[in-house]
């Protein structure tokens, strides 16, 4: 196994001061990084997509586990440190310089299945998460998503109906996937420490409910939670046929979106998908 210099030394040698604009909060604790890399299970010989490797803390844990890593990083300053890491694990690391939001990940991974691991700034992470979970293609090419979020966002992703944190993200993450809170990460684990606590969410694709269009389900949740304080008979007015479909599924039109279970959203979407 390659003998690597401590991450703090790598950062100092390459002058990688954390950039606020790029949402950089680095992890240096190698034991913690190994535990994160182990969340998806055995990655030996598997393809992994890592978004935002930065100086390469999680990347080295993934390489140690035997994964074949494709890492997308938009901060040019990190590239020499990542190149060194690639030399320490010959043939295992491919670094792509660019914005992950602008790249076609399936194409990048050559159409082969891949696990996704990432510690990203909040806005980029949520945008990618919604993209990975959306679309009509199911099962997707990714085999699992293991992603760091602010703890509050992670809780919204795994939320159950009945509370104010249950919303669009929960339905999107749960209607054809299994989403779990895998690990809480204290803010002090990061350099510099962010203001809030973090947590890692692990998602695996589940069965696609038959006869349901993803586009319609997304449209329904957008309308229902876009006006979450209103009754469904009001908030769903803009979705053709949705108010009529409520009765067919046995949902009281006076209910509000946060009381509607994921299964009920799926039933509604099924009626509208024919
Ligand atoms: C929170 S840091 C994490 C760095 C490292 N993975 C770690 O855990 O220590 C996020 C990284 O994502 C990169 N990044 C931010 N937005 C990105 C984007 N749209 N595409 C690719 N990388 C991005 C940043 O430059 C930074 O290196």
Structural descriptors:
Rossmann fold; Helicase, Ruva Protein, domain 3; alpha/beta; 274 residues; 2 domains; Ribosomal RNA small subunit methyltransferase A; 7-stranded mixed beta sheet; elongated; 12 helices; single chain; 37% helix; binds S-adenosylmethionine; two-stranded antiparallel ribbon
CATH class of the largest domain: Alpha Beta
Work out the helicity level.
25-40%
Quantity of strands, as a count: 9
Tell me the span between the first and last alpha carbons. 56 Å
The CATH topology assignment of the largest domain is Rossmann fold
Please indicate the count of domains.
2
Continuous helix count: 12
What is the H/E order? Answer: HEHEHEHEHEHEHHEEEHHHH
What structural class do you assign from the helix and strand content? alpha/beta
Q: Give the amount of beta strand, in percent.
A: 15-25%
What's the CATH superfamily of the largest domain, by name? Vaccinia Virus protein VP39
Estimated radius of gyration: 20 Å
Instruction: Report the bound ligands by name, code or SMILES.
Output: S-adenosylmethionine
Main sheet characteristics = 7 strands, mixed
Strand order of the largest sheet: 4-3-2-5-6-9-7
Shape: elongated
Mean pLDDT: 96
Low-confidence segments: none
Question: What is the second-level CATH architecture of the largest domain?
Answer: 3-Layer(aba) Sandwich
Organism: Erythrobacter aureus
Keywords: Cytoplasm, Methyltransferase, RNA-binding, rRNA processing, S-adenosyl-L-methionine, Transferase
InterPro entries: KsgA/Erm (IPR001737), rRNA_Ade_diMease-like_C (IPR023165), rRNA_Ade_Mease_Trfase_CS (IPR020596), rRNA_Ade_methylase_Trfase_N (IPR020598), rRNA_adenine_dimethylase (IPR011530), SAM-dependent_MTases_sf (IPR029063)
GO molecular function, one term: RNA binding
